[in-house]
């Protein structure tokens, strides 16, 4: 017993000799973490509802809400329901929607020609939303995958995605989307030269004020599966998209690719997917200084939902932590299926 006391005294004496204040020079990092008010006061990165863009899926019909099995909590919606969703989003303070169509198979063909119909599903949705909720922004994608019978983002000829013909079609489709009231055209197809072609077509049609949010760095990712179910292309896709999407291993190529889009007239840049490419988000922001957005894609969303449903994670906290990560990486905003949930959480404060 006496020996134990002797050892304890020796240990305390040794600890005193290496006093924490001597080690840190009286610098204590925990001082600003002690209270909630001080943590709020020194918080470096802030997420607000202004950072959220809500992607929604449009289907034909009236009064239709069709749950997407692979994306719990997300539904395809008919145009009238999309208008209701837009009103809800505006009430929550969400600045913009990104719309994606799931059209009938009878409208899909090898070249995606339905994209050129002025009154196609996506353009009808834009007109309806803008009529009822004019204050909300509408971002439309001109990639052809929702309109092709093979699931690719461009024209398929002899086993090849033909670049230049695809660019001509999407530039024309962009004009129709702008005519319908789209505020921003966001081409996700990754064809060479499409940003410049879209800018020229928009300007020639008198749409100088319509912006372009380039999917500047869209990677050939394994995280798109639930999205393809949502737009009805998962069973159509022949082959893969590696001949036009970026290799996940290539950061330098991604920066070069984005640079060409900047030169061609992109107003904003997007990184897709999001969380696995935070280094690209930061690089684009630091290199070009344009507004940068991340797309928190369907696979990212579904993994959080699945983990929460299984009880493995706190879904709400993980949702907010991941959204904060995009902001910390330099993003000006995030396209996320969590937008309504996140907006409600933000309204409670604490983030």
TrEMBL record:
Keyword set, alphabetical order: Heme biosynthesis, Lyase, Porphyrin biosynthesis
Domain of life: Bacteria
Chemical reaction(s) catalysed: 2 5-aminolevulinate = porphobilinogen + 2 H2O + H(+)
EC number: 4.2.1.24
Gene Ontology molecular function: any one: porphobilinogen synthase activity
SMART domains for the chain: ALAD
Protein name: Delta-aminolevulinic acid dehydratase
Family: Belongs to the ALAD family.
Species the sequence originates in: Hoeflea alexandrii
GN (gene name): hemB
Oligomer status and interactors: Homooctamer.
Recorded metabolic or biological pathway in which this protein acts: Porphyrin-containing compound metabolism; protoporphyrin-IX biosynthesis; coproporphyrinogen-III from 5-aminolevulinate: step 1/4
């Amino acid at each position: 017993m006496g020996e134990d006391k002797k050892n304890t005294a020796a240990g305390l004496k040794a600890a005193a000799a290496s006093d924490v204040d001597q080690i840190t020079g009286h610098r204590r990092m925990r001082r600003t973490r002690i209270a909630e008010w001080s943590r709020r006061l020194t918080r470096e990165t802030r997420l607000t509802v202004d950072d959220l863009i809500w992607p929604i899926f449009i289907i034909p019909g009236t009064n239709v809400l069709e749950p997407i099995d692979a994306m719990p909590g997300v539904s395809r919606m008919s145009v009238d329901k999309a208008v209701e969703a837009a009103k809800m989003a505006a009430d929550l303070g969400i600045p913009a929607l990104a719309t994606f169509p799931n059209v009938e198979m009878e409208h899909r063909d090898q070249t995606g020609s339905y994209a050129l119909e002025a009154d196609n599903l996506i353009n009808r949705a834009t007109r309806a939303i803008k009529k009822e909720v004019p204050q909300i922004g509408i971002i439309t994608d001109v990639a052809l995958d929702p309109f092709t019978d093979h699931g690719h983002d461009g024209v398929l000829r002899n086993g090849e995605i033909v670049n230049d013909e695809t660019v001509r079609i999407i530039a024309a489709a962009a004009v129709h989307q702008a005519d319908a009231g789209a505020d921003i055209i966001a081409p996700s197809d990754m064809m060479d030269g499409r940003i410049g072609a879209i800018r020229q077509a928009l300007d020639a049609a008198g749409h100088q004020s319509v912006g372009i949010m380039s999917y500047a760095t869209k990677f050939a990712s394994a995280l798109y599966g639930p999205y393809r179910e949502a737009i009805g292309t998962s069973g159509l896709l022949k082959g893969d998209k590696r001949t036009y999407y970026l290799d996940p291993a290539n950061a330098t190529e991604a920066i070069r690719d984005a640079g060409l889009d900047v030169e061609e007239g992109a107003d904003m840049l997007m990184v897709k997917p999001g969380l696995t490419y935070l280094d690209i988000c930061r690089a684009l922001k630091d290199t070009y200084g344009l507004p940068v957005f991340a797309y928190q894609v369907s696979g990212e969303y579904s993994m959080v939902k699945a983990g929460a449903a299984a009880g493995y994670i706190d879904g709400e906290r993980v949702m907010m932590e991941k959204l904060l990560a995009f902001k910390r990486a330099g993003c000006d905003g995030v396209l996320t299926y969590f937008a309504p949930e996140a907006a409600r959480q933000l309204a409670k404060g604490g983030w």
